[in-house]
Amino acid sequence: MSTSLSRALVATGAAAGLALLASGTAAAHVTADAPGAAQGGYAVITFRVPTESATASTTKLTVALPQLSAARTEPVPGWTAKTEKNDKNQFTSVTWTANPGSPGITPEQFQRFALAVGPLPKQDKISFPATQTYSDGKVVNWNEPMPAGGDEPEHPAPSVTLAAAGSEHDHAAGMSSETDSDESDSDNTARWLGGIGLVLGALGAALGLGSLIRSRRA
After folding, report:
1. Where does the UniProt annotation place the signal sequence (predicted)?
2. How confident is the model at residue 189 (pLDDT cuts 50, 70, 90)?
3. Domain at 31-149: CATH code
4. What local confidence, expressed as pLDDT, does residue 55 receive?
C-alpha cells in the first residue's frame, strides 16, 4: 500500500502544478485535483485553498472523505493535520489547522494541501465537501453539488473525476508480465549457452590432453 501511495505522489506532482495554472474561473474556490486517479486505486489529491477575504486569513480547512481505508497527509510548514475515523477504522475527514503564531493563508494568497488516499470508490466522480474557516470567525461551506448542466453553484464542493477501474493497472501488469517473461527467456538462453560452453571447453581440454599423451609416447 505504501508503495502505491508513493508512486501516486511522484506521478501527480508536476500535473497538479499545471492544473493550478489552468484553474481559470474556479481560482477563488476550494478545488481538488488528482491527475491519473482511477476507480479502486490509490492517488494523491491536492486541495487548493485560496483566501477570498480582503481582511482575514484562512486558519482551518476540514475536508470530508468517503470512508477510505488509507489517508496520509503531507507535512505543510506552519500547519497541523488531523484525520478522523469511524467505528470501522475508515477515514471520514481530515482537518488542517494553522499553528499558533502562523499567519495562515493571508488575503490574495492560496495554499495547497496534499492527501494520499485509497482505495478510491468505484464510481465516476467523488466529492469532498469542505469547510473553510477564517481568522475573523467566518465559515464558508464548500458543499454544493455540481449540476449536470447549467451554471456552477456559488460554493461548489471540491470533486475529482475517476478513470475506469483497472485500465492503467492492467496495462502495467501486462507490461510487467511481458518484461518478466523476456527476462526469464533471456536467463534460460544464457544458461543453455553457458552449459554448452562448459561442455565444449571440457571436450577441448580432453582432446588436448590426449594429443599430449600420444606425442610423449611417440
Report:
1. 1-28
2. very low
3. 2.60.40.2230
4. 96
- Return the C-alpha cell found at 50: 485560496
- What backbone phi and psi angles, to 5 degrees, belong to 182? -65, -40
In this prediction, residue 195 carries a pLDDT of 52
Q: What is the C-alpha to C-alpha distance for residues 112 and 12, in angstroms, rounded to an integer?
A: 13
Q: What is the pLDDT of residues 54-96, one digit of tens each?
A: 999 999 999 999 999 999 999 999 999 999 999 999 999 999 9
Contacts of 49 (CB under 8 A, 6+ apart): 30, 58, 61, 105, 110, 111, 112, 113, 132
- 139's grid cell: 465559515
DSSP 146: P
Q: How far is CA 82 from CA 23, 43, 71, 111, 122, in A?
A: 27, 19, 11, 17, 26
Instruction: Give 164's DSSP letter.
Output: P
- Three-state DSSP state, 26: helix
Task: Compute the distance between CA of residue 21 and CA of residue 92 in angstroms, rounded to an integer.
Answer: 30
Considering only residues 16 and 108, tell me which one the structure prediction assigns the higher pLDDT.
108
Q: Is the Cβ–Cβ distance between 113 and 49 less than 8 Å?
A: yes
Collapse the DSSP code of 214 into the 3-class scheme (helix H, G, I; strand E, B; otherwise coil) and give the result: helix
Residue 195 vs residues 20, 162, 173, 185: alpha-carbon distances, Å:
59, 52, 33, 15
Burial class of residue 214 (count of CB atoms within 10 Å of its CB; 0-12, 13-18, 19+): exposed
Evaluated on CA atoms 21, 164, 93, 151, the torsion sign reads positive
